[in-house]
Amino acid sequence: MKHLFAALVAALLLFTPVLATKKVFAHLLVGNTPEMELSEWENDMRLAKASLIDGFALNIASQDSNNVRSLKRAFQAAEKVGGFKLFFCFDYEAQGPWRADQIVDLLDEYAGRDVYFKHEGTRPMVTTFEGTGSADDWNRIKKVFPDLYFIPDWSSAGPERAVKLGGGVADGLASWGAWPEGKKSISTQLDRAYLAALGGKGYMMPVSPWFYTNLPGWNKNWLWRGDGLWELRWNQVASVDPDYVQILTWNDYGESHYIGPIHEKQLALFEHGRAPINYAKDMPHDAWRKLLPWYISVYKNGRPPARVLQETAVIYYRPSPARACDGGGTVANAASHGQKEMPPEEVLADKVFWSALLNSDKGLSVKVKIGDDEDYARSLTLVPPAGMGRPGVYAGSVPFNGRTGPVQVTVMQGGRTVAVVRGSKNITNHCEKGIQNWDAVVA
Ligand SMILES: *[C@@H]1O[C@H](CO)[C@@H](O)[C@H](O)[C@H]1NC(C)=O
């Protein structure tokens, strides 16, 4: 009897599902998707899922008449794909504030669906982009949906004030602080401030690979430093260990931080925003997803997998030296964020950045060929959180040094070639329309 009981307890322990609360979402602008077919939605979801992304935070603007159709397709696609979640991000900036009754209507229609993401399996999750002025609305909305898990981004208020807004209506907070100021590398200072202010409430940490926007039609023309950002930030995710991660973004081509595939039909925004050049055209960022399964596994398991099954490498660089062409009026830093503007060439380095997922750095050598000229990486700027010699991502960079032409990076270990990566664009001193493209070539 005693043995039977012990066996029963053991069996229960074995089969009790671990409450895996950590999740990684990608932020998706629904406003860019009215032309997206059901099959394209499905394809994007399959790609995200293959990168171990758990779902999309669907950014919706309050006055967008296409929302109805786009959301219908998105949910239809998620139901078809399976194992992929969706939830709403109410954007209060794009087209003004949302009304509480509009939000109630949308939640009424969607929050109960199986594919709608629920915190701890039962509480429909909702985030926002800003909307601090409407914080009180959420007390009313929660009266209608008492189970709601409300985790807004109220970055403009800062963590201490945000956590108190609406009488403390938020169940957690999302941050939008994914980019460093000026020449600095991003730190976890702001993330730590959120954790401190939240005192145990949920935190959704932002991770982004890049930022450049030049859309005079919408009064946007600045960049933030993306040099080495993606790989550094994922190491920070491993150390901050937030409840949730939000990747900024899946398809924001206008701000150059898309990691999803380019949909030509979505690039019409460059005309609407009166961009001097279409800076996302032929600039795929898909390779930024390549190391995501590794980064996400490290984050979710709290430690790296024992071995790297497929060693691989990713590179990125800007297509022209910073001083080669007219800067297009783009500045580094945003005055709208209370930052001092700087010339981009003082912030961004003319370098080819590489990251390699390896079992160890033993015997590692990285050759960067630009045009006919070869150079070797001299140092590592990033090693796995577990340390040198351990499985994980090793990264560094090699300056252009005046070289132009095709880019090829060869990662070798003790005479063995691990990976050869070719850039999809030559580095050139000749820019389209004579204007600098500050977006990244990723391969
Ligand atoms: C890139 O450079 C190579 C070698 O100089 C040249 O053959 C090729 O045409 C260039 N590609 C473009 C798109 O300019």
Can you give a write-up of this model?
The protein is 24% helix and 24% strand. The chain is α/β, with parallel strands linked by helices and 443 residues long. Strand 1, helix 2 and strand 2 form a beta-alpha-beta unit. Helix 2 crosses helix 3 and helix 9 runs parallel beside helix 11. The longest helix is centred in the N-terminal third of the chain and has 15 residues. 2-acetamido-2-deoxy-beta-D-glucopyranose binds next to loops.
Question: Could you give the count of β-strands?
Answer: 20
CATH architecture of the largest domain: Alpha-Beta Barrel
What percent of residues adopt helix (DSSP H or I)? 10-25%
> How much β-strand is present in the residues?
15-25%
Bound small-molecule species:
2-acetamido-2-deoxy-beta-D-glucopyranose
Keywords: Signal
Signal peptide: 1-20
Pfam families: Glyco_hydro_71
Short description:
This protein has helices at residues 2-15, 38-50, 67-81, 100-110, 137-144, 158-162, 165-168, 189-198, 229-240, 269-272, 292-301, and strands at 23-29, 55-61, 85-91, 118-119, 123-129, 149-150, 172-174, 202-207, 211-215, 220-224, 244-247, 312-317, 331-332, 351-358, 364-370, 373-376, 392-399, 407-413, 416-422, 441-442.
